[in-house]
Amino acid sequence: MTGVQGKKVLLKAFLTHTEAALLQSFLEYHGIDSEMRDTHINSIQHLYSNFTGGIKIFVLESQLEEAKRIIEEADQNEIELSQENLPQELKESSEKEGPSPVRLKNRILVLMLYVIPILISLIFYFKE
After folding, report:
1. Label partner for 56 (CA 20 to 30 A): which of 14, 78, 98, 127?
2. Which domain holds residue 108?
């Protein structure tokens, strides 16, 4: 944010921090100042997103219509990424290499953040 003053209005709300951060980055790339609100409670406990109205993106009132136009334009131009749309050299390399290191890293992260704590909780629960 560049510190431009003015009245801020709600542009959009999201259930996850990731979606909100992606939109905020997209808006900033297009020169629109934005502010993310209600991130802390929703990041700590994402199940509260429905109660709090989600993570909200606010923009300057003077930039609201431009932001809506940019989002609508991006939605219309969205391309479905699938194997059919990939260039031939990427299709061949993905078939040869197998799962990417990023996917493997993400799977390990999910295991560490979600599965292991649940298993530990169950062990302590049934131990008592």
Report:
1. 78
2. 89-127
Among candidate residues 78, 67, 89, 84, the one with its CA nearest the CA of residue 23: 67
Tokens 């790339």 correspond to 29
Q: What is the pTM of this model?
A: 0.55
Q: Helix and strand tally (H, E) in the chain?
A: 7, 3
Residues 49 and 12 in one domain: yes
DSSP structural state of residue 79: -
Measured distance CA(119)–CA(14) in Å, rounded: 30
Cα 97 to Cα 33: distance, rounded to the nearest angstrom:
41
Residue 70 located in a structural domain: yes
Per-residue tokens: 50: 């429905």
Using one digit for the tens of pLDDT, what is the confidence trace for 82-126? Answer: 455 555 655 555 555 555 555 666 677 777 777 777 888 888 888
Please tell me whether residues 25 and 69 are part of one structural domain. yes
Q: How far apart are CA 109 and CA 107, in angstroms?
A: 5
Q: Are residues 61 and 28 in the same domain?
A: yes
Distance CA 26, CA 104 (A): 27
